[in-house]
């Protein structure tokens, strides 16, 4: 009998099932198209004895030990509800369903509430690391009843990535907590990627560097404080030659980026929670703008192409700017996690989140270990104010300012870096400018304002 089951043998599902089998667990698998299951098991090689391929849901359910644990790896959205509706009547009340797709955490909260009302267990877990991660060690962000997590924690920690000896699999909290943490991971992923794309643009258009030279810069940065999976793969992408044209691959890829929605969900939730996530919002907007190809062509025809050459060598400043931008962006991400934790009653373990992101996931980086330490030492503080990161920002914000201002003066768009800089400057301005906003609001709507020198609500002389 299988110790666990998995439904959905798409890229991620197949990789996760292989990983589970590889770690010594017997696993039953099911896919709606039976030939996919047959091919998967037939191609499993040494892992085949650990896999039970099944052709119907009844057969699948019968192949799993009771009380059952079943991972759903079907496309996020309606397909998850449909699969739950099909499976539940075949299951016992103590059988655990685990949605491991990229679910919207609001859906996970609803499904968790429905499961609770029926008295059946349900988990929503975020899994990051792409196909390679799923196969050899993803980062796993668990959510749902802790008792459900405890039942499968031995399997999830066995298949997870490791940072040293520590498995990157953690229970984050009730209902949608795991999927929310995964969503914020993806929002940060969008901002990290966008800021890297912005410095790539400055190197390409401002400094006139070719893809090979840019690849060399990313390789060098990957040996320093920016060391991370995304910097590493950016270097690899830049170094790749297109077999068809013989040109650098980057030079033949259309500049229009896709998105499945998780970055947008992060921005939407940040706005709902009044938790500033401006670098992430800028990154989502940049993806949206990237797909407006025709409109951008029209703009270039009317105004002339924006990017102009940059004087001087600012490559080292670009590295420092990325560092500063990244710290500001993560400060926003962890601020958003803290806000959601209060709003949804989760008690999210912020240092634990930084720890779980240290290996396996797409945003894994050397810096996350320092973030885990900072979030432990100063748990209630903005990450930018933790002594280690405050020092890093003191050392690097000048470069961020130089890069953002140079980009603005030379027409090289840098929206996420610009958002990060504006956030940093705003957060070190004790006397801001919202006094003007309050004056305006009171003038046109008598909304009232507070005074610096008195308590209570006040109005301007226009109040009559
Ligand atoms: C991961 C990735 C993964 C996937 C997203 C991104 O953590 O493994 O984030 O979940 O790549 O779907 O998708 P989009 O860029 O299409 O939104």
From TrEMBL:
Q: Name one GO molecular function term.
A: NADP binding
Matching entries from Gene3D superfamilies are given as: 6-Phosphogluconate Dehydrogenase, domain 3, N-(1-d-carboxylethyl)-l-norvaline Dehydrogenase, domain 2, NAD(P)-binding Rossmann-like Domain
| Top-level lineage group | Bacteria
Q: Which residues are involved in binding NADP(+)?
A: 8-13, 31-33, 74-76, 102
UniProt keyword annotation of RNA-binding present: no
Q: Which PROSITE patterns match?
A: 6PGD (PS00461)
Record keywords, A-Z:
Gluconate utilization, NADP, Oxidoreductase, Pentose shunt
Enzyme Commission designation: 1.1.1.44
Every copy of the 6-phosphogluconate dehydrogenase C-terminal domain together lies at: 178-463
Record: active site: 182 (proton acceptor), 189 (proton donor)
Residues holding substrate: 102, 128-130, 185-186, 190, 260, 287, 441, 447
Concerning SUPFAM superfamilies, the annotation shows: 6-phosphogluconate dehydrogenase C-terminal domain-like, NAD(P)-binding Rossmann-fold domains
Pathways involved: Carbohydrate degradation; pentose phosphate pathway; D-ribulose 5-phosphate from D-glucose 6-phosphate (oxidative stage): step 3/3
Catalytic activity entry: 6-phospho-D-gluconate + NADP(+) = D-ribulose 5-phosphate + CO2 + NADPH
GO biological-process terms attached to the record: D-gluconate metabolic process; pentose-phosphate shunt
Function, as annotated, reads: Catalyzes the oxidative decarboxylation of 6-phosphogluconate to ribulose 5-phosphate and CO(2), with concomitant reduction of NADP to NADPH.
Matching NCBIfam families: gnd (TIGR00873), PRK09287.1 (NF006765)
Regarding protein family, the annotation reads: Belongs to the 6-phosphogluconate dehydrogenase family.
Self-association state and partner proteins as the record states = Homodimer.
What's the protein name? 6-phosphogluconate dehydrogenase, decarboxylating
């Amino acid at each position: 009998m299988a110790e666990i089951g998995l439904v959905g043998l798409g890229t991620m599902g197949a990789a996760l099932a292989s990983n589970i089998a590889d770690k010594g667990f017997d696993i039953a698998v099911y896919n709606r198209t039976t030939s996919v299951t047959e091919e998967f098991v037939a191609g499993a090689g040494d892992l085949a004895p650990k896999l039970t391929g099944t052709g119907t849901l009844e057969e699948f359910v019968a192949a799993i030990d009771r009380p059952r644990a079943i991972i759903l790896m079907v496309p996020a959205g309606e397909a998850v509800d449909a699969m739950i509706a099909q499976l539940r009547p075949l299951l016992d009340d103590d059988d655990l369903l685990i949605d491991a797709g990229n679910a919207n955490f609001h859906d996970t909260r609803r499904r968790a509430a429905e499961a609770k009302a029926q008295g059946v267990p349900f988990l929503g877990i975020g899994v990051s690391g792409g196909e390679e991660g799923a196969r050899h060690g993803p980062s796993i962000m668990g959510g749902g009843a802790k008792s459900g997590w405890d039942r499968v924690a031995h399997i999830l920690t066995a298949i997870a990535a490791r940072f040293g000896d520590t498995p990157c699999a953690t229970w984050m909290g009730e209902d949608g907590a795991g999927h929310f943490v995964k969503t914020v991971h993806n929002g940060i992923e969008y901002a990290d990627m966008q800021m890297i794309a912005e410095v790539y643009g400055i190197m390409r258009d401002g400094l006139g560097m070719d893809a090979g030279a840019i690849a060399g810069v990313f390789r060098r940065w990957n040996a320093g404080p920016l060391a991370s999976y995304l910097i590493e793969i950016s270097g690899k992408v830049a170094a790749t030659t297109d077999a068809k044209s013989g040109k650098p691959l980057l030079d033949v890829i259309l500049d229009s980026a896709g998105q499945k929605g998780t970055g947008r969900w992060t921005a939407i939730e940040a706005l709902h929670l009044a938790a500033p996530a401006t670098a992430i919002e800028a990154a989502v907007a940049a993806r949206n703008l990237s797909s407006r190809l025709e409109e951008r062509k029209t703009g270039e025809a009317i105004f002339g192409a924006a990017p102009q050459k940059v004087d001087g060598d600012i490559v080292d400043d670009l590295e420092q700017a990325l560092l500063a931008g990244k710290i500001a962006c993560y400060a926003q991400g962890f601020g958003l996690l803290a806000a959601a934790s209060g709003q949804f009653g989760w008690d999210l373990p912020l240092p634990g989140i930084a720890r779980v992101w240290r290996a396996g996931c797409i945003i894994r980086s050397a810096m996350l270990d320092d973030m885990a330490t900072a979030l432990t030492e100063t748990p209630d503080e903005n990450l930018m104010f933790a002594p280690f990161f405050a020092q890093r920002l003191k050392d690097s914000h000048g470069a961020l300012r130089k890069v953002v201002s140079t980009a603005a003066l030379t027409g090289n768009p840098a929206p996420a870096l610009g958002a990060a800089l504006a956030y940093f400057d705003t957060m070190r301005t004790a006397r801001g400018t919202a006094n003007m906003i309050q004056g305006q609001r009171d003038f046109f709507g008598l909304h009232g304002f507070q005074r610096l020198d008195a308590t209570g609500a006040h109005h301007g002389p226009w109040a009559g």
